[in-house]
Known about the structure:
Number of strands: 19
Radius of gyration: 21 Å
CATH architecture of the largest domain: 2-Layer Sandwich
Mean pLDDT: 88
Largest sheet: 6 strands, mixed
Distance between the termini: 13 Å
Strand content: 25-35%
Number of helices: 11
Low-confidence stretches: 1-11, 99-103, 344-352
Structural class: alpha+beta
CATH topology of the largest domain: Nucleotidyltransferase, domain 5
Strand order of the largest sheet: 3-2-1-9-10-19
CATH superfamily of the largest domain: ATPase, nucleotide binding domain
Helix content: 25-40%
Amino acid sequence: MNLINSLLGIWSADMGVDLGTANTLVHVRGQGVVIDEPSVVAVSRRSGQVLSVGAEARAMLGRTPADIVALRPLRDGVIADFDQAEQLIRYFIARAHDRQWHVSHPRLLLGVPCGVTEVERRAVIDAALSAGAREAHLIEEPMAAAIGAGLPVQQAGGSMVVDIGGGTTEVAVISLGGVVAASSIRIGGDEMDEAVIQYVRRNLGLLIGERTAEEIKRSMGSAFPFARERSFTVRGRDLMSGLPKVGELTTAHVREALAPVLVEIMRSIRSTLDAAPPDLVADVAECGIVLCGGGALISGLDQLVAHETLMPVRVAEAPLACVVRGTGVVLEGLETMSRLLVKERRVRALRY
Length: 352
């Protein structure tokens, strides 16, 4: 079996996967990040057949006829629909892998939230193996994010990372290649979108969809006041008449809508600092906190965190790709960095 796996390793590519609630990114060893697509699958209700995956499926959200459903197989950073998650991983393996060889069972390294249960971890591994992976490894997302952001995680000094994804927010203080203190809350970009939807519903009497809410969050969302607030129009369905209606919002309104979610994220950051050893907190106070994930792109979030913690804060370069870039670094030195993995690998017996 070891010989077989060695030969398969020649004909397949190691892949790092950030299997996110909102987006999935894939890093292929030696090639870098080759895929960044929404974690959405469109399925026929009649036959159960997968019709499209990724960006094409996301375009169907909220627009499908009765016999087609566009769904997201991951919720809160974990698998909610095993079969569709398997299809999602299978699709991305096929997209990313070099198809010139018939034998193409890659070794996968997948990021998982640090707060997941053993059952949820096993579900990720089983989905990856069922999708065609030769081996499946797991790494905690804050560790991968810290590595991808270039933090010295193997050194004795303390590093702190805040990874705000679509379904979870991961906060961790890391030293000597291990997570010393961490907090994982199932709050992230999805809750921000829902907060915008509910705010518009309450204050304007308008019903808007997830895609509209996400666009408002990305373009007008903020955590700290702008020097000059802006206003914009929002289109949706009137709750009373059911007819199309146009309303007006300001960036201050969007900030008010996002405030409850940001309060929870700040509470998680504070609790992690409280749980960390004083010497490591002193290191973080000197080196600063690094923000990763899509939520890090919210305007002024670094200012808010700096204001609340009295520590220097910076947004990582390419924050959306930190986790997947971290998996790529670990893949390059998997034998020497194996202690960073969540648990020892499981190898699938292939059929011939």
